[in-house]
Write a structure and sequence with these properties.
The chain is of the alpha+beta class. The protein has a 5-stranded mixed barrel. The longest helix is centred in the first third of the chain and has 26 residues. The chain is elongated. It starts with a helix and ends in a 7-residue tail after the last strand.
Length: 155
């Protein structure tokens, strides 16, 4: 190999490595900024479909700009849906949180990763092993549950 060719190969390897590291970091870095809100959201109050005592599992799923969590049902207080909820089972429920790419919210265009922000409600996620009574709303179109913050519940 000529000297020029070696330099080009080394530079291409370095650039490929930098791009590869960026893509990996962009996929796996998730910052918890739930104490802050980003944007204005119009969220409608409604009656809860389900009231359950649950335990947090610590499992979180991010799909696009939506955040969901797995919760374990400890006790069903009421269920006004056709869904068969069983005590001891885990279900996935969407949270009133939103995800933004760090490159959109930081001053640097090439900042990798994503950040989770509040949607302006009092909602706080359950930690692993923490038990709490929560209200769920069923989205009938997608058949997905949403964890309702207290201020959105109409009694």
């Amino acid at each position: 190999m000529t000297k020029k060719r070696k330099i080009v190969v080394v530079l291409l390897s370095i650039v490929s490595g930098i791009i590869g590291v960026y893509l990996i970091l962009n996929q796996y870095i998730v910052l918890d900024r739930t104490s802050r809100e980003l944007g204005i959201y119009e969220i409608v109050s409604s009656q809860a479909d389900v009231e359950v005592l649950v335990e947090g599992t610590g499992k979180q799923n991010i799909l696009g700009d939506r955040v969901s969590t797995k919760i374990k049902i400890v006790n069903i207080l009421f269920n006004n849906t056709s869904n068969n909820l069983v005590e001891g089972n885990e279900i996935e429920a969407n949270e009133y949180l939103v995800v933004h790419h760090n490159r959109q919210v930081s001053g640097l265009q090439w900042t990798p990763g994503r950040s989770i922000f509040s949607m302006g409600t009092s909602y706080k996620r359950l930690k692993k092993g923490e038990q709490q009574t929560i209200h769920l709303k069923l989205n009938k179109e997608s058949n997905q549950f949403w964890i309702m913050p207290e201020e959105l519940i109409i009694q």
